[in-house]
Amino acid sequence: METYYNPEDLAKFSSISEGAPELWKKFSQWYGAVFAEGALTEREKALIALAVAHAVQCPYCIDAYTQSCFEKGSNKEQMTEAIHVAAAIKGGAALVHGVQMKNAADKIGL
Amino acid sequence: MESIFKSFDDALKESSLFPLTAKRISVLQINMGRLCNLACRHCHVDAGPARKEIMSKETLEACLEVIKAHGIPVADLTGGAPEMNPDYMQFVKSCVDAGCRVKTRTNLSILTEDGYTDLPSFFAENKIEVIASLPYFLEETTDRQRGKGVFASSIEALKNLNSIGYGVEGSGLELNLVFNPCGAFLPPQQKAIEADFKRELKKRYGVSFSSLYTITNMPVGRFLDFLKQSGNLRGYMEKLQSSYNPSAASNVMCGETLSVGWDGSLYDCDFNQMAGLKCGPGSPIHIKHFDRLKLESRRIVTGAHCFGCTAGAGSSCTGAVS
Known about the structure:
The structure holds 2 protein chains of 2 kinds. Chain A is mainly alpha-helical. Chain A has 5 helices and no strands. Chain A has a domain at 38-110: AhpD-like (Up-down Bundle). Chain A is extended, with a radius of gyration of 19 Å. Chain B has an 8-stranded mixed beta sheet. In chain B, 50% of the residues are buried. The chains are: A mainly alpha, B alpha/beta. Chains A and B meet through α3 of A and α7 of B.
């Protein structure tokens, strides 16, 4: 079955370097540095990445960071809570725009 | 599996580590039988309550002869559940009397079953190092891998071991735990997950232990079946291969360990044992024909599963290697 998303494509990520190898090189170096241990641990960064992956709804990132979170020592409880954080921000972001709706409604209402 | 993936020997060649050879025999790892009270989903031995293979008294005596004659420093007892071998206690005592340090691997839950509850005191009397499997500090995760109720009985056994000094600082009684991932992924950094285990087991159950060893699940036995059935084989093997670490490869345990099968056959490691790969040409292949000179310079028999020992921080029966 053909789909827009194919799990095997994740392994082909680096093929995007074709056409702009220097940009890919810079991206790879920066990406590696972002996820290295710093003020935040690698485990914390992987949990943030997992939450953001759900917010941006990237199936490749969800696959990759589910595995990464386990490999950094997180468990399913922690990963589920991280996703709830993403969901809460997305849900809250939608809801807080209700104030815009109220402002608009008040403006055009009698 | 070999035909689909890059060979382990090619990886060794690329990092100038080919051929892999033994350095010495510091550890005789003895598989005392495949009988076990559990049938864990990750078990590379395919051990379980229905298995009949048990190391005979005669073979145990042959192992003891080698330990005595060559002054082997460490005997690492594994299975199955090694405690279920009827000659287990006698063998342990004989090894200790011969001046050999004994490490016994246990699934913990066996220590709560009838007929085995006196073992912790026996371990303590003989200063045996206990290496206990506990996949995770959460019940649901552990029981999913090992069977319902196993986590609770494991915690009970750990509390018993702690009560006689095992895993308690300053007691001299070593209790090391073994973590293995509950699925098709690599283990976390050993020190990081050890800190989690120490904190959570103390907080939740008041349990302490000495060190935690992280072990990679090997694509052998029941875990290999799981990989095939769940469609994870290719992804897992790619992961192991892409995580090949030359530093781990230069410290693999087969360099210092000789594995003895339940029938006395000799292997480079427990995983080769389960894959049916005996020591290579020119080496003795039975404990009765032990030849130290030949065995200490033997060429290690490799296969695709060897990538499991060289991925990331590496993996051995005593945890990460680099």
